[in-house]
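Quick one:
INPUT:
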């Protein structure tokens, strides 16, 4: 019974245009109808927090975001966890927030 239900589910997915999950699939992956339209109309985020290991790949991601028009926001963060340095940096899109909001720095809270 379960095998029959599985075969029906797989055939419904194929009819809908979803790619098969099998390892024998050859050629490019076809996306279901409408996915490309959704991907093309997604808005750019006004605020992002980039985080990762402190390596060249993280620095490149920050550099790419700056080249894409984002600006640094606030101070960078670094945490040491088990000998690995994990860093983070907030970035904002000044076009979406307005210059005044992007120039504002976060307040420091004294403990």
């Amino acid at each position: 019974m379960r095998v029959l239900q599985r075969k029906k589910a797989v055939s419904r997915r194929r009819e809908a245009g979803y790619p098969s999950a099998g390892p024998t699939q050859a050629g490019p992956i076809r996306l279901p109808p409408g996915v490309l339209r959704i991907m093309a109309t997604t808005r750019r985020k006004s605020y992002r927090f980039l985080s990762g290991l402190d390596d060249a790949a993280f620095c490149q991601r920050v550099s790419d975001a700056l080249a894409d028009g984002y600006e640094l926001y606030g101070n960078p963060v670094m945490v040491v966890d088990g000998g690995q340095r994990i860093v983070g940096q907030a970035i904002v899109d000044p076009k979406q927030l307005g210059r005044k909001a992007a120039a504002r720095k976060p307040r420091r809270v004294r403990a």
